[in-house]
Amino acid sequence: MKTYTLTLDDLGNIETQNVETIFAQANGFMGVRASLPIQESDSLPGTFINGFYETHPIIYGENAYGYAKNHETMVKCFDLRTLECFVNDEALSVLTERDLKLNLMTGILSETYLYETNSGQQIKLELESFASHFNRTAYAQKIKITALNFSGEVHVKKEAKLLLPNASKAFDPRVREASVNLQKQGNQYTTPNSKLSLYTKFDQIDQTFKLNQTQSFEFEQINQISKENQFETVSYERLKAEQIKIFDTFWSVSDIEIDGDETLQKGVRVNLYHLFNSAGRDGKTNFGAKGLTGEGYEGHYFWDTEMYLLPFFTHTQPEIAKSLLTYRLNILPQAKQRAKELGFAGALYAWRTQSGHETSAYYPAGTAQVHINADIAYALELYEKITGDIIFIQKAKAIIYETARFWISYGFMSKRGFEIHEVTGPDEYTALVNNNYYTNKMAQNNLLYAVRLAHTFKENQEEAKIWQLAADQMYFGYDETSKITKQDDSFLDKEVWDFAHTPKENYPLLLHYHPMKIYKHQVLKQADTILAHMLFAEDKAQVARDFDFYEPLTTHDSSLSRAIHGVVASRLGRTQQAYDFFADSATMDLSDMQGNASHGIHAANMGGTWLGLIYGFAGLHIDNGELKIENHLPKQIKALRFNILYQGKLQSFELKNEKN
Amino acid sequence: MKTYTLTLDDLGNIETQNVETIFAQANGFMGVRASLPIQESDSLPGTFINGFYETHPIIYGENAYGYAKNHETMVKCFDLRTLECFVNDEALSVLTERDLKLNLMTGILSETYLYETNSGQQIKLELESFASHFNRTAYAQKIKITALNFSGEVHVKKEAKLLLPNASKAFDPRVREASVNLQKQGNQYTTPNSKLSLYTKFDQIDQTFKLNQTQSFEFEQINQISKENQFETVSYERLKAEQIKIFDTFWSVSDIEIDGDETLQKGVRVNLYHLFNSAGRDGKTNFGAKGLTGEGYEGHYFWDTEMYLLPFFTHTQPEIAKSLLTYRLNILPQAKQRAKELGFAGALYAWRTQSGHETSAYYPAGTAQVHINADIAYALELYEKITGDIIFIQKAKAIIYETARFWISYGFMSKRGFEIHEVTGPDEYTALVNNNYYTNKMAQNNLLYAVRLAHTFKENQEEAKIWQLAADQMYFGYDETSKITKQDDSFLDKEVWDFAHTPKENYPLLLHYHPMKIYKHQVLKQADTILAHMLFAEDKAQVARDFDFYEPLTTHDSSLSRAIHGVVASRLGRTQQAYDFFADSATMDLSDMQGNASHGIHAANMGGTWLGLIYGFAGLHIDNGELKIENHLPKQIKALRFNILYQGKLQSFELKNEKN
Which Pfam families match (chains A, B) (predicted)? Predict the structure, then answer.
């Protein structure tokens, strides 16, 4: 059994709620935060079930036609971890020591806590737990209770608790209270509005033991939650053995070894661990922005999946990639309905959703990010390129056709070419612009892929001519004087943000400035043109000029920004700069760089770490149908080893730093 | 006593709620809808008190920094008109006839209703009523009840009723239920959140009379409402006599006589009547978009006052003009606070408000309409030009300086000139654009006026240099190829709206299309560049080109649009077209052209009618310090007579149509 352990020493911020996120366990279906075993006010316990959300009507101060109708909030449903313990009738309440060891290689968490009662009677609590990947309905725990400095009666009560609404206090647009009063009927729990049900099979203990000093008592609990009222009984030991096997298989393909920088090595493995844990596996669920580890962004699925997570999954865990893409195929009807509602042809995917319906309550930074259509198309095309799985593409091709139809309808042909107006690109610090470079580039790619599929499957030939024409004539803004790619028609005309007079504590800007103030300036939240260049650009000199222009204007207020800049810096041979971006990205949640790891992991950034290593330092690319690498290792990294599944075959790569 | 009567025959839509709006009575402090005397479900009774609003926190689906915090909704507080009547213990309930006569010359409404009980006992109700302009706390009624076809006991009960919340059903962003449970303590009524109080002195009757057939019974009621607990007792007859005098004085200056077109004559007089009635007189209140006649737009004050109403008041009722401008001076502190909150210098007036605080819950069509600053400055400058009242200007000049400071801070100097980005112009069918022509033109005027005042009052000399520079360098977009003034940087690049495939019932567009769809097209809600041309343009050929380009793209979905197009058409010598716009504008509410007269009058359009006649047909302008006119009468109008108070002196004008 391989061991690679994460401990509290690895964390930059060991506040309870951060620890609960980083050590959370999940299996794609359920996620359980590593909350304290004895209830405490600063602890934020939670169990999340992928795709289990409650709806609430969105209230608008001023409503308008076509606005998204409902919030969908992933429910924080149960506390599976808290126990009550009384020593000689005195409650155990004071935490004096804690020690967490997460074995990333096995997906098993070991915890040790020293607690005492007010009068000083001490108990050692030892927990072993995991969210089973073998039986995804099961959260398994083994609990050992030791009387440290007393002999007497120990009463233990542990049963799953329904979590009730708890109004969040601070204003932060990135979190919404996952508050819901689930309706209970027997072992069935139902959301009042969305009418989604969960069934449970909970273990429970409520017992008194006589323990002499240093004596222990041990018990196991398997708490099960399922979308169907069917449960399989599997022993703790069996679940544990299977967990170890599954993780072993995972790491045998997906592990990345970094020689020379233990901090980065740990950061990368934590990230891959969480990616493996929070990805939906059933084709009906996806990957929330915070995985299944916290309530940030309400559990919504964004473009993050396609542009930040799917490269990793596609290259190493294609079955998971297929499952995440299948989700998009399953919500295509909702996307078609949405396009129609807005008066356009084809399909428009929701910017943020679980059900497939648009839930963005601020369309300028939501629905207007129509690039999500092309992001999905891009990910599907990448999946085809890497896996060669044409059977799935045949199933999913409607996504490509319908998104292509949307572009034709949303854009228009002018004397300048095919233009796409009133969109918001990835950089949410400008909104509702015309001809966003990233959007147009991605739409072009979407259209060309549609053309290719139309030819492959010999269908939609007439439309394909229009798609080809729009792609060929796609308009891209370029400033001939400065030789800079225009982020959009108006970006270069804007006033430059006054960075010199912006105090540090005013970042992220979105929490301290009105959108009107932000939008009117040259200031970026995250990679936009630079992301497009990472995906498509061939002219290095152009990329360098754009990088030098846009990066200093970028606040990296979004966790999606640094990784992309790292990849592009690598390709430009700016190895040290690439390393700095990568280091930030690799340890973002361990160091709590964004200050909100308590809301859950930054999943997209975790996928971005993989991009930084593999696309960046290793320069992975396809050349004449073959995988090729290019060595951009920074001096801190002595060697880099990783595997890629290409066309069904596992290929292993090793890069060494020649400077060492 | 002069008579000029409006009857039901003059209305295009005699549905109850429309009638209640058109025949509403108001005195600047209170407004009383002409609701049915016997309660009926389709009647919408209401008394509105200017500046009496309740606040509710605005709920945002996605909140952000600097968003407006509270709704302010003008309270529909009392029903002063409903009575209950029983004939031999049987309720009077069936309305069989009604006849309304509003004497516009006296501000007195006469109504006759025939009602019967289920068994057919008939009563004639005759009402005379007015909202007193002599004692603005008083709503006076004289009521006569006649037994038509029976003898017996008639029980009459009439007391002011508190109106309770009544959730509105249909979705319409232009209305919000004025629902509030006022807290009552003795004769004091207080809004629970905003803590504003009203005091009342209500008359009440609850009595039984014996009437023989054809016999009558008559009584008077004076219901009083005040912001202070002080009431003066004045007799009905005295109030009536004073009302007649006051209206006589009003019309002696403000009347406009149109020979040859009785429909227009009536439309114009109805409009002027309502303007006189709903204007706040105390410097603490202003003029709601619907006056005091309905709950549309929550009673909010917009730029409508400055750009559509103040020309009329300034030229004929300068005391009212001063009072409306004094309101802006009184809320200057809130405007300074708002600018600061958004990170800008100077003052930014709220787009919609009563208290002075921003209440727009959709900033792209609200706060982003920063042109309101310059609109207020324009109105103040016009007031100075027409009245010469430099004493008031000395008091109010801070408005001009603070708004000038805002422009310097909101805009910036680029190589193209002084640019103003991220604004929404009057045309709300494009939003968040750069260098909106109207905004830049108005800001320039604002800056130049600030420079002039700085010189006059010998102050702010250093700042004045910057103001002058920004004004001199103000950037205006112009398309050299088409010779069209650019509405904004991107307008000419947009796709043209598909008017041919837009069914009639899909207007106004805002109720049938998502903002993203509307904004991305060349389509206008109302005059924008054309409004700027009305105010400033000298090059007729340019105006004509722009008119021919923009007017066909304009839906006139806003009631503020037609009048302005009428004025400009007049000046271009397009007399017939001007007449068509004017005719629409003059009778807009009488004909219920916008389909929502039930929400209240379209006050701005009513002011627009005056613009159409005086700026348009009569071509009024100042030439070398003298008032000049220019005859643009259309063939339908034989003669036009009106007065202007210029520099304190009344000047009378008469234009005759030489073609007749």
Answer: Glyco_hydro_65m, Glyco_hydro_65N
Name which of A413, A509, A520, A521 to mutate to probe chain B: the one with the most chain B Cβ atoms within 10 A of its Cβ. A520
Which residues of A118-215 form beta strands (DSSP E)? 122-131, 138-147, 152-159, 161-162, 183-185, 188-190, 197-201, 204-211
**Mean pLDDT computed over B108-130:** 97
CATH number of A5-231: 2.70.98.40
**Cβ separation B62–A361 shorter than 8 A:** yes
Q: Which residues of A22-52 are buried (b: 16+ CB within 10 A; e: fewer)?
A: bbbbbbbbbbbbbbbbbeeeebbbbbbbbbb
Q: Are the C-beta atoms of A429 and A511 separated by less than 8 Å?
A: no
Residue B295 annotated as catalytic: no
Locate all alpha helices (DSSP H) within B159-316, ordered by sequence: 236-254, 262-278, 304, 310-316
Domain boundaries, chain B: 5-249
CA distance B93 to A96: 79
CA–CA separation, A269 and A440 (whole Å):
35
User: Which residues fall within 8 angstroms of residue A30, CB to CB, at 6 or more apart?
Assistant: A47, A48, A49, A50, A131, A136, A137, A139, A225, A292
> Are A514 and B489 within 8 A, CB to CB?
no
Looking at A54, A419, A428, A551, which residue is catalytic?
Answer: A428
What six digits make up the tokens of A510? 């979105």
Give the closest residue to B535 by CA, choosing from B321, B315, B325, B306: B306
Dihedral (Cα; B524, B529, B530, B531), 10-degree rounding: 100
> A77 by DSSP, 3-state: which?
coil
pLDDT of B172 higher than 70: no
Closest CA to A341 of A64, A149, A537: A64
Tokens 């979004």: give the residue.
A558
The overall pTM is greater than 0.95: no
Residue B170 pLDDT grade (very low, low, confident, very high; cuts 50, 70, 90): very low
Mean pLDDT of chain A: 95
pLDDT per residue as tens digits for the range A433-465: 999 999 999 999 999 999 999 999 999 999 999
pLDDT at A170: 45
CATH number for the segment(s) B5-249: 2.70.98.40
Q: Please list every residue in chain B whose beta carbon sits closer than 8 Å to the beta carbon of residue A512.
A: 65
The answer to whether the Cβ–Cβ distance between B493 and A414 falls below 8 Å is yes
Across the interface, of B368, B421, B516, the residue whose CB is closest to A342 is B516
C-alpha distances (whole Å) from B605 to each of B529, B566, B570, B596, B600 are 18, 12, 17, 13, 12
What averages of pLDDT result for each successive group of 10 residues across chain A (660 residues)? 91 92 98 95 93 92 94 94 96 96 97 97 98 98 97 96 68 57 95 96 96 96 97 96 98 97 94 98 97 94 98 98 98 98 98 98 97 98 98 98 98 97 98 98 98 98 98 98 98 97 96 97 98 94 98 95 96 96 92 89 96 97 94 96 97 87
Number of Cβ within a 10 Å radius of residue B621: 12
User: Which DSSP helix (H) or strand (E) runs through A219?
Assistant: strand A216-226
| Nearest-CB residue to A65 (from B416, B495, B514) | B514
pLDDT at A594: 84
- A53 SS3 class: strand
Distance CA B328, CA B403 (A): 12
Residue to mutate among A71, A72, A348, A514, with most B CBs inside 10 A, is A514
Give A-chain residues touching B339 at CB under 8 angstroms.
none
| CB-CB contact of B596 with B642 (8 Å) | no
Q: Where are the beta strands (DSSP E) in B288-335?
A: none
